[in-house]
Amino acid sequence: MITAVFLGFIFAAFTPVLRKLGQSVFPWVYSLLPLGLFVYFLGWLPGLSNGPQVVGYPWIPSYGINLDFRIDGLSLLFALLITGIGSLVFFYSTYYLKGHPALDRFYGFLSMFMASMLGLVLSDNLMAMFIFWELTSISSFFLIGFNHEEKSSRKSALTALGITGFGGLVLLAGVVLIGTVGGSFSFSALVPLSETIQNSPSYVWIVGLFMIGAFTKSAQFPFHFWLPGAMKAPTPVSTYLHSATMVKAGIYLLARMTPVLGANPIWNDTLLWVGGITMFYAAAHSLFRVDLKSILAYSTISALGILVFLLGVGTEKALLGAGLFILAHALYKAALFLVTGIIDHQTGTRNVPGLKGLGKVMPMVAFGGVVAALSSAGFPLFLGFLSKEVMYEGVLALGNLTIVAVAILVLTKIFLLVAGFWAGIKPFVGHLPTELASVKGPPPTLWIPPVLLGICTIITGVYPALIDSSFVQPLFHAISGSNEIYTLKLWHGFNLVLLLSLITLGAGVALYFFWKPSDTKFAKTFRFESTSPESLFESGGNLFLRFSRFWTDFFQNGYLRNYFITILAFLILVTGYRLLGGVDIHIDWEQISSVSFYEVILTAMMAVSIGIAVLTHSRTMAILALGIVGFVNCLFFLFFSAPDLAMTQFSIDTLTVVLFMLVLFRLPKNKKLSSNPIRIRDGIISLVFGAFIAILTLEVFESPSQTDVSTFHAENAYLLAKGRNVVNVILVDFRASDTIVETVVLVIAAIGVYTLMKLDLNPQKNP
Amino acid sequence: MELLLVFLIGLMHAGGVYMLLRRSMFKMIIGLILLGNGANLLIFLLGRLVKGHPPVMADGMKVFTDIYADPLPQAVILTAIVIGFGLQSFAIILIKKVYKVLETDDLDELNSSEEEI
Asked: B115 in a domain, yes or no?
């Protein structure tokens, strides 16, 4: 099982090797991958009626994160769709993208994406699922941006990544929260805890976070706009991402979590509203589009809205209808996308008003398109009919607001019928216009996949028993958590559902003849551009960019002294707060020695010199004042029993003054570079800092000092090291290695000084 | 006396920080030296002030019999003075060189990291 999931990643990693097989052979090798996986997952089908099975691999058991794979009706449905439609897409692309220079990359991304999707739907552990969830976002980013030389393509990919990535983060928060409440990340362990979770105060948060994750992925209003943008991808990618995989991941998540979080008014009402708004808004939108892929994009959003809506309705029939619709929609939408791809590939246009009469040129493609359109419309004997019937039945059992819900659903279905007919039927009927007269029929590689999908749609539509007990019922049980059996029937008798179906079909076909796609209608939609969620998102993104630029400029402004001020201010505030708050400053006069006259004089001299060094405009004065500071320091050392220090300080200070004078004497006078307010600000900061250091010094001085180390050195200076000057003994004996390193540092500094002096940076000036 | 030293330490730190905040590189070095001196004095003070008893034994003695000044801070400061000198001399030569090449002492005029191409 784990091999099956990760095989796609392995294939992707070996892309460069596989390419060596030759430009024409390796796509076929790749196509074997999903096909093999499809057969493998078919093998799990017979065991499905015995209930869910979990195959576990430990990963990070200490955190409760494991690679457990759960096979039940829901995950197997998705696994089969991913690998099945994947096989068709891989196969289809061998011709569609024939000779594309980056074909190897394309297949690499595609198999990476497929593996991520498989991991997502099969993971029993929510943490693992989240990781695969993010992997799908990332790999779809590469797929959507496949034509990376186009600006719009890059932008679409970025928008998709931004929206789904944001949703992914929110989902992570939800997963962590549910793990905290339920004590486990394992889905199987969470189902029995449904009641505990729903009664916990975090329930609202969990639901909100999971829903935002799902809505962003499944393009629900107001996050829907990344999906039409993602149509910039090559058509096989659109087929794969939008019929069965990427966008269904959110639906999968909601369906998966229904037994845990569902059957609660908060859950159901939110889904009902969001799904209802999305399905109607998008379906109505699709009628104003003229580009084939754009129509399909909006009808996909609408279909996703229907699925969310059905999960929100939450009656058993509605959940069954949702399960069936996932399958039906995947089959017909994939076919429609593939057909669109063929039309685009052969004619070079996707503009619906101009496309007609192609049925004579490509009859097989027309077959696939018409079957898909009829299934989408829900004509009897097609799979879409079954899903639609169950769907209506489920919504009729809603209880309150039934009429409104049914009306919106029927309207949506009518609009979708028209959209489906435009994509699947209109291009093939009527007279072939002269500009399309030279169009040639596609090779079998292109038309076989949609035709296969069409055949599946018809077979399952005519013989629902074929998939009923083996597949549909386990699927229903996985979504609803119940054990009821609803046998699928083609004929339900004369009842309200049949009436609604007839209304849908009749009104839809009538609308198809009455309402034609046109560019003028498309142009009208631009009027609402400025208030659409897409432009709001864009301006929000720009605002965020501006803010972060401001933020960065504020803190990373390139002036070292501003960083320095920030650090100082922070230090003073934090430590100052502590000093004022809890520490009382007292002076122990017994520790303080008396002051003699010359000490006062020296202190005054030093204070004045510091003042001169800081405030003077003359360099010479500053250097001299600095020299005095050093020498007074030296005297202090001398008075208070540190003759070695005094000697060192004396010689170093002399050297510094001489060096300063020699090197910097010829520099011009100090200019006044800063303005007065800045000087005052800096003055206040530094005075506060000085006072702060002084207080700190006093504080430390008052606390008892630890002298063990000093005593050890003093007592053993002669006994161990045969020296009577303890300071010297410490430096050259006890800490000799430190002193050696110090010498090395000095040598390096000396080399640096020497090289700098010899360095000539302006050779052209001094030849 | 300790209080006077505390005052001087505070003053040196204040002056040092103020000079570090200037735009002139020359002033920055002054600030650096002031801070260094202040820090040395601070460590020295925390070793407690002892008058007239350096940590040196009289000839012929093997251990101290009288009180003595704390040798450890002195060793640390001695190291600090020497290293500080290395830093100062390098910095002095560096700004001399910068001034020679760019003919400015103003840090704000050195802000572009690379030459415009």
From this structure: no
CB pairs A-B closer than 8 Å: 273
Q: Distance between CA atoms of A748 and A754, rounded to whole angstroms? A: 10
- Are A109 and A139 in contact, with CB atoms under 8 Å apart? yes
Burial of A424 (0-12, 13-18, 19+ CB in 10 A): buried
Distance, in Å, from the CA atom of A646 to the CA atom of A476, rounded to the nearest integer, reads 91
Verify whether the Cβ–Cβ distance B79 to A738 is below 8 Å.
Answer: yes
> Measuring CA to CA, which residue among A366, A359, A386 is closest to residue A459?
A386
Pairwise CA distance, residues B21 & A366, whole Å: 78
The H-assigned helical ranges of A463-532 are: 465-467, 473-480, 496-514, 519-524
> Distance between CA atoms of A588 and A701, rounded to whole angstroms?
10
Mapped onto helix, strand or coil, the DSSP state of residue A367 is helix
Q: Do A726 and B44 touch (CB under 8 A)?
A: no
Set of chain A residues whose Cβ sits within 8 Å of the Cβ of B92: 659-660, 663-664
- DSSP letter at A87 equals H
> What pLDDT score was predicted for residue A265?
85
> Are the beta carbons of A641 and B46 separated by less than 8 Å?
no
For chain A, say whether B66 makes contact (Cβ under 8 Å): no
- State the fold for domain A559-706: Four Helix Bundle (Hemerythrin (Met), subunit A) (1.20.120)
What residues make up the domain containing B97? 2-51+68-110
- Across the interface, whether the CB atoms of A593 and B52 are under 8 A apart is answered no
The answer to whether the Cβ–Cβ distance between B50 and A640 falls below 8 Å is yes
The residue among A308, A161, A295, A302 whose CA lies nearest residue A226 is A161
A51-71, pLDDT tens digit by residue?
788 888 888 888 778 888 888
Of B73 and A578, more confident:
B73
Nearest CA of chain B to the CA of A590: how many Å?
11
Interface of B with A in 8-47 (CB under 8 A): 8-24, 26-27, 30, 33-34, 37-38, 40-42, 44-47
Q: What is the pLDDT of residue B111?
A: 62
CA distance A625 to A610: 7
Domains: count for chain B: 1
**B78, part of any domain:** yes
Whether the CB of B7 is below 8 Å from some CB of chain A: the reply is yes
- The interface residues of chain B toward chain A in range 74-113, judged by CB-CB distance below 8 A, are 74-75, 77-79, 81-90, 92-97, 99-101, 105-108, 111
DSSP state of A432: P
* Domain residue extents for chain A: 559-706, 707-767
Task: Answer yes or no: is B61 within a domain.
Answer: no
Nearest to A256 by CA among A180, A361, A175: A175
In the three-class reduction of DSSP (H, G, I as helix; E, B as strand; rest coil), residue A68 is classed as strand
- Residues of B whose CB is below 8 A from A744: none
Considering the domain boundaries, does residue B62 fall inside one? no
Across the range B89-100, mean pLDDT stands at: 85
pLDDT in tens, A35-50: 888 888 888 888 777 7
Quick one: pLDDT at residue A486?
75
User: Which residue ranges in chain A fall short of pLDDT 50?
Assistant: 766-767
Cis before A222? omega within 30: yes
Q: What is the pLDDT of residue A548?
A: 85
Looking at residue B6, which CATH number applies to its domain? 1.10.287.3510
ipTM: 0.91
**What pLDDT score does B117 carry?**
41
Which distant-in-sequence residues (6+ apart) come within 8 Å of B53 by Cβ? A641, B66, B67, B68, B69
Comparing CB atoms, the residue among B6, B34, B84 nearest residue A694 is B6
- Closest to A739 (Cα-Cα) out of A748, A749, A728, A750: A728
Chain B environment of A587 (Cβ under 8 Å): 3
What tokens appear for B74 in the block? 């002195």
